[in-house]
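To whoever is on call:

I kicked off a structure prediction for a single chain this morning and the downstream step that reads the tokens threw a length-mismatch warning. I double-checked the sequence; it's 238 residues and nothing unusual in it as far as I can see. Pasting both halves so you can look.
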Amino acid sequence: MRVALFVTCVNDAVFPATGVATVRLLERLGVEVDFPSAQTCCGQPQFNTGYRARTEPLVRRTVRAFEGYDHVVTPSGSCAAMVRHHYPRFGEEAAGLAPRTYELTEFLVDVLGVTDVGAYFPHRVTYHPSCHGLRMLGLGERPRRLLEAVKGLELAELPGAEECCDFGGTFAVKNPDVSAAMGADKIANALSTGAEVLCGADNSCLLHVGGMIGRQGAPLRALHLAEILASTEEEPWQ
């Protein structure tokens, strides 16, 4: 099977290791991965802020970049949700990309039909379900099923898991005090589990809570789910 990786601009600019991990994971499962170099921002920040006219050129560029692929895979629930739920507003051509776009855990569970991907990660982990994946994509138990199958991993239940971490893109800039307070609650809940790692499937959220963890000096690491699933006994992820 051949797929296109939609790495997203956040991962490309700030978390390139997540893109590398996604490719390593998919190739280990026998998937041929292409990276269309014409891809750029999907337009979500502009669209969410109300700039539809500035969003449209980015939508058109993204659609052209992924022409000819039956499956487009992204390690980002928020960007997958943008394509699936909002691209149809930009016409028939853009709407055609929506059903071909999958968030990574959806692709693994629903298309490849796997939950045990051969991963090894001997750490105590707690999982935060990001809002777009939880509410817009309905990822449900897919990420947890994948984590539960990882050899050596101890999955700890996160109190208030479904509460927003309050990054919300531009919301964190416009309402920094509320954003910081909700992020602090998320970190406190994660620390209460005794986990070494706070895992998520969307690096925009992990950027927010990870930055706060760093400032607090908390004994906790924020890590994308793809990086855990890419780790094996032979090639452990750092």
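Update from on-call: the warning came from a stale cache, not from the record. Cleared it. Sanity check on the structure: The chain has a mean pLDDT of 91.
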